[in-house]
Prior knowledge:
The protein has 249 residues and is an alpha+beta fold. The protein is built from five helices and 13 strands.
Amino acid sequence: MCVVGFQWHPGSQEPLLLLGNRDEYYDRPTAPLAWWEGGRILAGRDLRGGGTWLGVTRTGRMAVLTNFRDPTLTRPEGPSRGQLPVAFLESDASAVAWLESLRPEAGSYSPFNLLLYDGEDLLGYESRHDRVVRFEPGIHAVSNGDFDEAWPKVLAVRAVLAAVAEDDEALLKALEDDRPCAEDDLPRTGVSLDLERLLSPMFIRSAAYGTRASTLVRLGRVHVRVLEQGFLSQGRGARAESQFERSRE
């Protein structure tokens, strides 16, 4: 995912509401939201690397990945970051324990952010700082910088959650906002100014690269709902939806 907003209400009947956009090259093969072999993981799939950017399980676990944008820190020889959400979703370890096992090897990957929910605790992890983030109840977001770093698209998705959190269709529609931000508000991540401008909206459009999917997740203590709208370079793609009750296994 390249921008993710989430509303964290621990102790409520719906502890976590999340929505976000995944941006990727149009020629990178991708399978849409579906249950994977074995029926444990519900996620889209990167068919080149074999991993995912967002997934949930029948027991209410969730993992979300965003890349950290800094060309000088990229490790092209490193393992695929998309395998990290899969590894967490396949595990039964708590988010705390799983991150502790990841930290010694996190530096072998290109830098990333992980958002993990084990059914009870919600934790973030920023690999370039080796920092575990605990969130206060309320609305948070992340893009390709740090958690809650005040990029325009981070502020925008937080405002959307504050305004229309109860309306799934309005939330997904708001993710299609493709207005670039003002030049003075652009983050500086080491890419060219033209590329910063192209990447600044919540919804990205260009000839070769853009928003490929918008996803909404409602993780309740009993009911889980996941909506995904896919997008192609030529326009809107397929819609996928899944609803289920959390397993107590």
